[in-house]
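Lay summary

Proteins are chains of building blocks that fold into shapes. Our project writes down both the chain and a compact code for its shape. Here are two examples, one after the other.
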Amino acid sequence: MTDTLFDPPRAAPTEPSESIYTVSQINHLIQQALTAQLSPMLLVEGEISNFRVYQKGHAFFTLKDSAAELPCVLWRDALQQLGFTPQDGLAVLAQGAVRLYEPQGKVQLYVSRLAPRGAGALELAFRQLCAKLRAEGLFEAARKRALPRVPRRVAIITSPTGDVLHDVLTTAWRRFPGLQVLLFPVAVQGAAAAGEIAAAIGLLNRQAAAIGGVDLILLVRGGGSLEDLWAFNEEIVARALAASHIPIATGIGHEPDTTIADLVADLRGPTPTGVAELTIPDAAALGAYLDGQRERLNQHLARRIQEAVAVCSAGGGRLTDAMQRMLWVTTRRVQAWASQVQAIEPRHAVAQGWRRLEDAQRRLGESPARRLKDAWTRLHAAVGALQAVSPRLKLVETAARFKGLEAVLRSAAPAQWRQARLRLAALQEQLQLASPRGVLERGFSITMDDQGRIVRRVADAAPGRRLTTRVVDGVFRSVVEP
């Protein structure tokens, strides 16, 4: 096994050395040779065999191909971060360092990352992780956050190159001109992609308040094979999506493609442009909807006012009828009293009766008019209160606030560019002062001996030695005199 990793150069037989080594020294020399000859991080492809997880949580297994085997170690932390369960016979790609376990003289691959190889292995890992996350409830609709109806600021996590970003921005700004968009560029394919995506989601959640708030995150990527989209099936990405307090919508690949990120996200779009269509409102349609709502509210207010007027009118009519009935009853009573009085003293009784009748008629005539006037006063007060809460005033205030925000945004951009240019100029000046040429321009020089070593002390310039001195505009040579 060792011969396949470290093949010492062949040499002619020599006499045995008189030096005697211990086993520890030999193993240490082999470790040094391995470190010098091999890269500190290797990618090894093979098939898993004899996979075992021991009591402390570390895994030991063998990677093999048709001609050789390589013992491997997967520490507990790295094992817990895998998005699948390794099994014997599974083709994988292992990333790690080859080292010698000196106490036993055993060469091993210390694995830091492990990924399945081939469509069958990837599908197995996909199913395993799906089952695990589903059991934890990460796919449940009740856990997912509601998306804002009108997002003010949207963050897009995707690759900064390619057509996907252009298509999403074009769709978003066509539907809602002036929408504020933040781009978080990440790798969307390869070994580092999953970590970058998860880090971007976490950073957005931590810094949302500092950057003025984020209402929605769009995680998008163009189409590709199962291997190309595998970063979106990693557990680290699923955990970051579930932990986000900002709503996240995904548009990954084409419509048939479904990743674990799609299942955990708050909304899945069929394509990158499709998720932009689903989450970014159409400004024209929104304006028409608001106009319709305002018209319906005005109609509702007018109908309520008409109903109030009708109620008041009906109440006035009923009051008049009641007064007329009371007047008729009173008149009959007065007439009866008049008949009784007339029987006693006709003229005096009739005069008193008519006076009481005139007073009653005057009071009855004043009461309905006064009550009707009070009802109209209350009606006008109610109409004024309804007009004070009309949505028309709020729409005017909102439009003015939007114009103010737009002016602030337009004025802030040039100032940020000026500050950036000033910082760049200061950094260039510092770099110029620290450069070797800057040191030479200030009157210093560098002297080297004939072997190219810098002369720092007098002892380094032995008599007769040839020296080369570099100044700002060239070099000259000299010889040290005895």
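And here is the second example, written the same way.
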Amino acid sequence: MDSMLQQVQPVLPSKDVPAAVRFYVEKLGFRPAFQDDPNLPRYAGIRRDGVELHLQWHDTAEWHRVERPMLRFYVSDVDQLHAEFAASGVCKPGRPYATAWGTYEFAFYDVDGNGLTFYQHPKCNHGPAGT
């Protein structure tokens, strides 16, 4: 039997895990999934729809050596999501933009500087390229 990849849960670095959880829950509509400590978590998971992200504490003294990732989320309605996030103040008002590589998208950074891009293929409902 072939092994099949089922899911991926990216781990994002965070200087303050409770603050990061609050950002994702209050501003982006995620819900808490788990955390390692009920009072002062240093590792936590959050979920929205079919996406789960993990947030992991990193010492600020080491922060300059921690790489910040850029995540890309394929979404079904990028205009609707952009309007939701603009209303919560996490991205600029206006509209998503078309890219030279054929996507329609918008992006911003979370409270720890991790990049988040949300995109779709124009006039297409079949999922990310190649699927």
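What can we say about the second shape? The two ends are 22 Å apart (CA to CA).
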